[in-house]
């Protein structure tokens, strides 16, 4: 450890490791793509360092993990709000999406990556159309990503019929096999847009390739009511019957759950993505997250697409998650700050099957690290780092971000993207969308 | 209008005037402390201007109004969270407050002013101890403020017995009479900490001086239950019986209301301060704001103190308000973006009795104006300015702020405060608080 690539010094380290270590006056060393050591500043006095990053008394913590988004929906940010769900979808979002192409998805995802890096996200899980372009954009931005083409039983603007959707997915898996940043997932949209055959095939393909399986489940009460009426089962119960509840399944939303649904999620070690701001804005309801966590279900945090949010700011999502469950249960002790930070870091990594390489600051893990500048009026004074991260820190306070050992943002400057060009490109795309 | 003090050009103006005008490529002229004219850029081609502010395509709108806070609680930001209400108050907040003095309140309020200006707030309404120091701090920061000493029936660390509290309040009223920025209010804490005599005297003093009257009302269900058990009336009904429901009364929180309470608020033209994030974090409940607005009650928005939030960011509060009521009523059409912007601007001004001088951009009103930089990744593209302000704009996007014709922030630099000194001072105060 005599020659280090990067040394971050002079910060409070929230390791999020199994012991929950918080290290005052900490330093963390990066060699290649890995965390080489985590310690105090005096542990690194005699080392040679290629790049020294001074945290200036700020917080050093694992990069945040966005377990559910549709990144390219940046193109539709604020296109339509405050409408009934079906009006919003049928009159605004679906017509806009019918104009999508791979270039728009690429540009929209680059913009999403810029916004996500700026809010401390180092890894995201995406479901959308033209996901080959999403993988390319994430790679360009140098972000860690789990991406998968959305699969359903009607013709897709990208791949056409569903058989081609599976072929497209398996081709992506081959293309990106072994990539250090990109993981391809199999992503059937939902139990209500996918046949039983599609769902079973998706599960089989995911298991064949050891790929994550991602789906929307029980996002609204009406989805559950429809499922009960048509199938006599809740969406979770129905997936259980099909044998699709698997440890590599990430179930997004899980708002309208019954106690026996939670039991099934736990029994089969299914992971959950919680998207509080989207669930609020679309008036879907409040997911029973404190109950799920109590039962031992792994829950990560997500922003959802930014047509229903309208941003990709996981720090804001953390604040909202902490407060929403308190008011929903009329209990200020639920969803404490530390448990919310867990959701956004190590539990998020576990939700994506990536807990071996990211989600905490431990020697040997990949170097996905952010530095938060705490020298701001709205962060003074500081009594507790966990409290500040959840209730006070904002996206603009994230100063530096390292992903897989590469510095992608330093002093709030994005190093992997030409942000002016990306913004111009998405502005041009929005002109086309406006013309509809 | 040949020589202007300030001209802001090249922005989209949200006037929030009675016609709801939105002016593309707008300009706004400031002469002395007033708005001299509002128009398009071509209306101001031949004028001489002392200070030209280029909005660079951003948004120009009225300064935001924080109708309820305890500014100096910045000193306790994140001191204790996620606790039962009585543990939080009795074991953490009250012991910390017992150490307060005028210097701490002054410093804490300066820090609050810095944070508020940075999030676009130009006017706030405060209730706390040592409010003379709050008025001094607001004046130093050059913010518009309604301030009033909290009055209750036990000895105050500031004024001692309640008679001295009224004397202190009336002395403040005399000191600040005619001040262009500071308005002194009469502020009994709540129906549960104030006797009937205190409440009636407070109302009488407020009417004698034409001062605002500010009180906490029906913040929790348990407060209402206790009131019903002890007085046989809801807190609102009780205040009605006492003759304290007046048009100059600002009732803060109003979470636990019955339909007949809303009827009384409307009947007596009582104003309401809505504090969604504090109500969520303390698990108080959800105020029936859509119902109040439907009935014609004037509702402004507030942050509450930042021990229960933990910030003074009204933009975040706007986003939360829009989303919270949607999920609470399971209706995505309630609390639309435009109505939320009304709450944070002209309705907030009305709540404080200041609608004649602030809350909208109209010729002759005082110049309380903010400029929001829209050239940011998370604000691209823009389809609707109202949507963006509520769902996407963040505190750091506010670039420039003018209060009463004075530029208090330009390009995110605070011009009235030495922010490094203020932060150091509050950090020193936090050391004392930690020692308890």
Please state the CA-atom Rg of chain A, rounded to the nearest Å. 21 Å
Q: Please identify the top-level CATH class of the largest domain in chain A.
A: Alpha Beta
Residue share in helices of chain A?
25-40%
The assigned CATH architecture of the largest domain in chain A is Alpha-Beta Barrel
- Uncertain runs of chain A with pLDDT below 50, 5 residues or more? none
The main pleated sheet of chain A reads as:
9 strands, mixed
How does the overall form of chain A come out from the CA principal axes?
Answer: globular
Secondary structural class of chain A = alpha/beta
Q: Which fold name is given in CATH as the topology of the largest domain in chain A?
A: TIM Barrel
- If you average the pLDDT of chain A, what whole number results? 96
User: How many H/I helical runs of chain A?
Assistant: 15
SSE blueprint and pairings:
The structure is a homodimer of 436-residue chains.
Chain A: E1 3-14, E2 22-31, E3 34-40, E4 48-54, E5 59-62, E6 64-69, H1 85-97, H2 102-118, E7 121-128, H3 131-141, E8 144-151, H4 162-176, E9 182-184, E10 187-188, H5 196-209, E11 213-217, H6 221-231, H7 235-241, E12 249-253, H8 259-267, E13 271-274, H9 276-281, H10 289-294, E14 299-301, H11 314-329, H12 337-344, H13 346-351, E15 369-372, H14 385-391, E16 398-403, E17 406-410, E18 413-414, H15 419-434
Parallel strand pairs in A: 1-4, 1-5, 6-7, 7-8, 8-9, 8-10, 11-12, 12-13, 13-14
Antiparallel strand pairs in A: 1-2, 2-3, 5-15, 15-16, 16-17, 17-18
């Amino acid at each position: 450890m005599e020659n280090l690539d990067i040394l971050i010094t002079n910060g409070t380290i929230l390791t999020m490791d199994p012991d929950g270590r918080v290290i005052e006056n900490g330093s963390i060393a990066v060699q290649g793509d890995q965390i080489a050591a985590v310690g105090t500043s005096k542990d690194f006095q005699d080392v040679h360092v290629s790049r020294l990053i001074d945290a200036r008394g700020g917080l050093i913590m694992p990069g945040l993990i966005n377990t559910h988004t549709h990144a390219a929906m940046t193109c539709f940010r604020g296109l339509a709000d405050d409408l009934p769900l079906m009006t919003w979808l049928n009159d605004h979002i679906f017509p806009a999406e019918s104009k999508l192409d791979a270039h728009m998805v690429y540009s929209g995802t680059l913009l999403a990556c810029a916004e996500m890096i700026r809010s401390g996200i180092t890894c995201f899980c995406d479901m959308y159309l033209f996901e080959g372009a999403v993988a390319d954009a994430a790679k360009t931005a140098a972000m860690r990503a789990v991406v998968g083409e959305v699969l359903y039983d009607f013709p897709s603007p990208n791949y056409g019929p569903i058989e081609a959707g599976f072929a497209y997915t398996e081709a992506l898996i081959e293309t990106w096999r072994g990539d250090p940043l990109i993981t391809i997932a199999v992503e059937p949209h939902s139990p209500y847009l996918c046949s039983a055959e599609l769902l079973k095939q998706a599960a089989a393909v995911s298991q064949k390739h050891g790929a994550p399986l991602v789906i929307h489940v029980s996002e609204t009460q009406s989805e559950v009511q429809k499922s009960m009426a048509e199938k006599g089962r809740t969406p979770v119960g129905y997936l259980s019957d099909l044998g699709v509840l698997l440890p590599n399944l990430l179930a997004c939303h899980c708002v309208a759950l019954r106690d026996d649904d939670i039991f099934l999620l736990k029994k089969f070690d299914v992971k959950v993505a919680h998207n509080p701001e989207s669930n609020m804005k679309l008036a879907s309801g409040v997911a029973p997250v404190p109950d799920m966590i109590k039962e031992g279900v792994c829950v990560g945090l997500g922003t959802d697409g930014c047509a229903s949010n309208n941003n990709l700011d996981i720090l804001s999502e953390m604040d909202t998650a902490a407060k929403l469950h308190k008011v929903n249960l009329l209990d200020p002790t639920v969803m404490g700050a530390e448990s919310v930070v867990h959701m956004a870091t190590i539990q998020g990594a576990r939700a994506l099957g990536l807990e071996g390489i990211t989600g905490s600051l431990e020697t040997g893990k990949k170097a996905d690290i952010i530095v938060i500048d705490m020298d701001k009026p709205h962060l003074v004074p500081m009594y507790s780092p966990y409290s500040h991260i959840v209730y006070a820190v904002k996206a603009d306070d994230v100063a530096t971000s390292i992903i897989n050992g590469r510095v992608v943002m330093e002093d709030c400057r994005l190093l992997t993207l030409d942000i002016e060009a990306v913004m111009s490109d998405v502005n041009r795309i929005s002109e086309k969308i406006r013309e509809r």
